[in-house]
Amino acid sequence: MAGHSKWHNIKNRKSAQDQKKSKAFFEVSSMIRAAVKQAQDGNPDSNPALRLALDKARSVNMPKENIQRAINRALGKGEAGQNIQEVIYEGYGPNGVGFIVVAATDNVQRTVSNVKFHFTRSGGSLSGPGSVMFQFQREGSTYQPTMFIDLNQTQWDSIEELKDSLLEDDDVEEVYTNARLVK
Questions:
Q1: Are the CB atoms for 84 and 55 separated by under 8 Å?
Q2: The model's pTM
Q3: Which of 87, 131, 153, 177 has the highest local Cβ count within 10 Å?
Q4: Is the CATH number of domain 85-181 1.10.10.10?
Q5: Which of these, 180, 177, 174, 156, lies nearest to 33 by C-alpha position?
Q6: Where are the domains of the chain?
Q7: Average pLDDT value for residue range 150-157
């Protein structure tokens, strides 16, 4: 019988499990980075938010190396002692939606290449500084849109797809858009 191999079924099941695990690890590492950045302290004994995030990391069986990498990244340390810098990219996605991408990286060239790849693959483009920022207002460490672009469900799905692909990149911390779903 064609198409009924045991390996094919195992491969598909493992792929689905790996995607769920990757998403859980990303969420937990974001929690760890946020807790460390907020307190500027990588010690769980003196940082209760970090302690809570570490408990969550243990519950999803996150490896210690990944936990330490997230803590170091939030403190601005790279794997080999390089400094990690925060970089903000601006671009336009499908349907003219503005994107602000906040990344923390030790290699700016690699990160800009990855971000540009995600934009061009989805039909958007990376743009220069200030070309999108005027549509947003900074509130603390977040960006709130001041000008919205209304989208229907299919357009919204393409924006969410681009946003998810950007967030899958290890260097990307946050992604903000000015898209709004209109029913």
A1: no
A2: 0.68
A3: 177
A4: no
A5: 174
A6: 6-75, 85-181
A7: 91
